[in-house]
Prior knowledge:
2 copies of one chain form a homodimer. By secondary structure, chain A is α/β, with parallel strands linked by helices. Chain A folds into 3 domains: 5-48, lambda repressor-like DNA-binding domains (434 Repressor (Amino-terminal Domain)); 62-164 and 300-327, Rossmann fold; 166-297, Response regulator (Rossmann fold), CATH 3.40.50. Helices cover 46% and strands 15% of the residues of chain A. Chain A is built from 13 helices and 12 strands. The first copy, chain A, has helices at residues 5-12, 16-23, 31-44, 50-57, 71-76, 79-93, 108-119, 135-142, 166-179, 195-210, 228-243, 257-269, 300-315; strands spanning 62-67, 97-102, 124-127, 147-150, 160-163, 185-188, 220-221, 251-253, 276-280, 293-297, 324-326, 330-333. Chain A starts with a helix and ends in a 5-residue tail after the last strand. At the A-B interface, helix 4, helix 5, helix 6, strand 2 and helix 12 of A face helix 4, helix 5, helix 6, strand 2 and helix 12 of B. The first copy, chain A, binds a DNA duplex (30 and 30 nucleotides) through helix 2 and helix 4.
Amino acid sequence: MNVTINDVAKAAGVSTSTVSRVISDSPRISEETKQRVRKVIKELNYHPNAIARSLANKSSKTIGLILNTEAETLVRNPFFIQAMTGISQYAQENSYNVMFAYNKSEDGDLDIAVRYVNSRSVDGIILFTSRTNDKCIGFLTRNNFPFSVIGRPDQTEGVLWVDNDNFKATNQVTNYLIMKGHSRISFLGGPQDHNVSRDRWEGYKKAMTVHGYSIDKSITFQDGSFSEEFGSECMLNMISAKEKGTPLPTAIVTSDDMQALGVLKAMRKMNVSGIAVTGFNNVPISLYQNESFTSVDVNASKLGFFAAKLLIGKIEGRKNLPTHYIVPTNLVEVKPFY
Amino acid sequence: MNVTINDVAKAAGVSTSTVSRVISDSPRISEETKQRVRKVIKELNYHPNAIARSLANKSSKTIGLILNTEAETLVRNPFFIQAMTGISQYAQENSYNVMFAYNKSEDGDLDIAVRYVNSRSVDGIILFTSRTNDKCIGFLTRNNFPFSVIGRPDQTEGVLWVDNDNFKATNQVTNYLIMKGHSRISFLGGPQDHNVSRDRWEGYKKAMTVHGYSIDKSITFQDGSFSEEFGSECMLNMISAKEKGTPLPTAIVTSDDMQALGVLKAMRKMNVSGIAVTGFNNVPISLYQNESFTSVDVNASKLGFFAAKLLIGKIEGRKNLPTHYIVPTNLVEVKPFY
DNA sequence: TAATTTTATGCAACCGCTTACACAACACTA
DNA sequence: TAGTGTTGTGTAAGCGGTTGCATAAAATTA
């Protein structure tokens, strides 16, 4: 039905191997023959069949992407789609395709990984998860299947990963607040089974102790979810603690913009103001506020880009490759509503 | 390296064709043999190679997705990622893979489509674009390549598409405002080269005329972009027109939540209040406001789901399939900040 | 019991491309 | 001039499956 390498070979009066070699620009073919074959290829509008090529090369030139996140998060946090654009960009630059599968169920990601690996439809996988003891990582490692992870995993031994320096990020943002004159600074952390949560906590702690400020347990919260609810809850908590004599913080370092939004909503609700809030991800919250709000932009598309770079480097067996990339973050002052 | 159908055949003492038939559960194989072969398959942990299968079947069992949207839009509007989850869901239920490629450049989508089609790495394509005279649609149609479109295209002849009833949506939301007592209602439209813009305009117009309300040209705006800027611009425009005697509307029907946000920001800036605003897409804007704000949820994941359904139906040559689906919308009252 | 049909399986070609190896033609060396 | 090396191209065997056709064995019919 479609024009194949055979048709080209016949039309050009050469063998298929010659055509194949012309396509890959092999030095073993004379310039003359190359010209002739290329002309026929143009005329017949021939394009190699990617699947046949994959079979012969034992390589699909495709990377798989597994999204195993709550739809809610996917929708509110542009992180994922941004990372995906970065992945797609690097993949295209290197003639790779990108497959993705979304599955929100627990262990759904593992099922997909198993399918990808067994059917050999992808050459490697990019994981978004970075939970401690991730099952996918275990599975892929055991099967010696190329993969890279967005978010530093628990066990980095033999794993390719990209991440921000989360320690540095909260350290920086805390220092920034301190520089602005704050000393009583609250902290809201993320789930304890994410490394990112521990790093962010340490970064905050370091900045505080270096400046000689105490860490008040009553205004630091850990093992929370990256959600609005958790943010509101913590803020309300602090507001009610105030009545029992615990003064409110003058600034709050949160681990996610959703948390920050929750904090701001609770502040608004309880008519509290004048507290500087910081978050992560530069989510387009666009809220009307006269509060000071700063977000750490994690540069998600770069994270995706480098995750793809690491993975494809591994697939192609390139030598002397880094095992990870640290993508810089930058502070973004979120413009108030007016 | 990996266990193939040959290994299974040898181990089970049958031919590869028998193994193949066992896998596809052919009725021509005896129950006894099936059992035996299946046992070997388990023991050897055999999984068919998807690529070899694709080559033999001349079908990749993969659909391609082309994202050709400004990164800014992709990030702010959850529409795309939502649609993608819907597509992925239907694809998985039907054993299809999903490939995606992101390219924001003008005609980048066409390049990707050409690559997908020529290399035959996908069996069909889902387009997000619905610009009038879309080049991709033309290309795919000419090549008789299966595709479906999210967003009713200009020429529906022979095209599979899904969309909301955009006429009905703005009609409904306008009626809703009228029901609430509004009669002087402004309208902000989208780009004229999108069908959706015309439909939304007509829906608004119909509701207004049916109720005998005039359409005041000075408070209706068309051919705008789906952006905050356009929203602000129109609002500022109306505010300054007020000084020249044109009264402000009491409600504004916009074609996008970003436009609505722009309107709200401009109102805030100019200290105008008490105008009901509506938008589209149920974007998580989370703004602090005491204004009334209603969004039309377009049910993006359903749109994706049905686009995949139409496409896969076409690919598999199913008969008596619909040529399009209309996905219902629903009004969402966006909760104010408190 | 022989003829016919049904059932279960194997053979081999094919999907479209890559590549190790063979080999002819020519150029160079001794 | 025979021997050796280089260059350009073809042959054929894969890659890992699917499937039309042939066929042997078993079941059915007359």
